[in-house]
Amino acid sequence: MTTTSDPGTSPRSPGPASTRPTPAGAVRRAGRPRQPLTALLVATDAVCVLAVVLLLGHGDPAVVFVSTSALVVNAVAGLYRPRMDLSVLDDLPLLVGSSIASLGVAAIAEGALGVGDVDRSTVWAALAQTVLVLSARALVYALRIRHRVAGRVAVRTLVVGCGGLGAQLVEHLRSREQGLLPIGFIDDDPRLPAVERPLPVLGGIADLERLVVRHRVDVVLIAYSNVPEMVVVDVLRGCRGLAVEIFAVPRFWQVTTTHRLLQSVRGVPLVQLRRPAFRAATWPCKRVVDVVASALGLVVALPVLVLCAALVRREVGPGPLFRQERVGLDGRTFALLKLRTMRPDAASDVRWNAHDDAGPVGGWLRRLSLDELPQLWNVLRGDMSLVGPRPERPHFVERFTLDYDDYLWRHRVPVGVTGWAQVHGLRGDTSISERARFDNFYVENWSLWLDVKILLRTVGQVLRAAGR
User: Fold this and answer.
1) What is the pTM of this model?
2) Can you give the residue ranges of every domain in the chain?
3) Main-chain phi, psi angles of 181, to 5 degrees
4) In the chain, what percentage of residues exceed pLDDT 90?
5) How many Å apart are CA 339 and CA 27, to the nearest integer?
6) What pLDDT is attached to residue 104?
7) Nearest-angstrom CA–CA distance, 103 and 425
8) Which among 64, 44, 68, 43 is positioned nearest to 55, based on CA atoms?
9) Which residue of 81, 98, 204, 382 is surrounded by the most CB atoms within 10 Å?
10) Which of 277, 237, 307 shows the shortest CA–CA distance to 385?
11) Residue 406: pLDDT band by 50, 70, 90 thresholds?
């Protein structure tokens, strides 16, 4: 992060109460910030595609395929993401690469499906579309910059850190070329004296969420400040429900190599923090996958479940199914289902490690993770996901929250049957701080592919009998 404190020596304080995760419904779950430039670029490219198809396509399926697939390739390449610096020359290499990739996809489709005929006319159509898109973008960017300088595009912005760098950013933004309108600083201990501040200090770091809502802020810039790093991290995580984009000046920014994923304000690089997982466009797909996979899994695993339940009943007596209260998304509790692997009198909500009380059948079920199969019903009900941080009992959640700074932040996404920590061997009596670190990495870096990777590694562990 971007504070002056040493990241390795930040105090182990949970931070202000307002920065801690809150129950569902307590956070204003706003949608994404308005992105008019993104919508305008998509519409412009779509018009260019339509023009090429109508004027040069002549009913050729290959031209239609190449032109329309270019929109998808452009999106994957990040050509529709909002940016502060608008330059058609920066887009040129990506647009050319997009056209070449679209031709390659069309050639593959022709060979595999017999769709269209990629020939010279198709190549000319792709070239014409690239030129047309570049020309249209040059016009859009010129108009956009003109509107910015005229003040018709002014995104309300807060700057965290009232020091030399924060003042420098404010001074740069006053040119209006980036379309950002700074309205004030946020800092607990401003370095600049009051007479040297270009803008007022509106509050402390713990007030960030409140000030974003009160002043209708769309962008937050994180510069250097005297606030301990972990406090800033907690506050930023606490803003996860707000429709706001957050940028941070990286450490040693003077020697940071720039690339297309970095924004910049007149030579000062800015790293855009990733949106929370639930604001990703693919997030709804996670629930769809959970429902379909858990339903199919229950059907396929039913004979195994019946056999395991019969073995458990024979070993521990009646009641092979075990219910235990666990903590899930946003601190909500639910009844987690498992196959009973211990005697009823050995189960406890406050005993951390009771694995030695498992009998031969119970130990076998644990090693193969078959005792977790009933949790597919929890997934189908919506209590859990297939992949996510493992749920824990309320007693230990309360205890670990006090002992480990990052523990409670695991509950920003649904808990899971398996997780990033578990596939790295953090099962049973292992380090809680490491688990929290791996779980929060998963939350910050979630993607559908990461879920798939975790599921595949979980299958490998089950086949190796690597359970607890």
Assistant:
1) 0.74
2) 17-30+154-273, 36-149, 283-463
3) -115, 100
4) 34
5) 36
6) 83
7) 44
8) 64
9) 98
10) 277
11) confident
